[in-house]
Structure of DUF427 domain-containing protein:
Amino acid sequence: MARPAPIAPGPGQESVWDYPRPPRVEPSSEVVEIELGGQVVARTDRSWRVLETSHPPTYYLPRDAFVAGALRPAPGASVCEWKGLASYLDVVGPDRVASRAAWTYLDPTPGFAVIAGAVAVMPGLVDRCTVDGEPVVAQPGGFYGGWITSRVVGPFKGGPGTLSW
């Protein structure tokens, strides 16, 4: 399938088609919050964004951004061709558990060493994620963990017919 026509970014926006492949990681000072069960289970203004062609950013938060007891190991693992072996985590709220909604790279490849132990969350599996107060839309398809805000334009990989992009 041919590369789709990128949407032109407006002022203050980024096109995911300008992101690199292989991806890069960059620090972020945006305020990131994750809510589950009516409670903020994570909040930080120091995270990392992983940026990859055709994908909205995936945010990785330091473990200390999560409230005590909000993360617990979950079964399973997967391999990313760029970052290495991922371990899964459940996100635990006061009255709800989001099974395998988070993941971490304990020993990532050298280019991603800065996110070792940091935690990414699938926005579609928790109640709400925000970036600088703006609610996040989950990347389509349920497989990738990208966070869509008004600051990024696509089209985005993940939905039907996009896996060959």
Summary: The two ends are 7 Å apart (CA to CA).
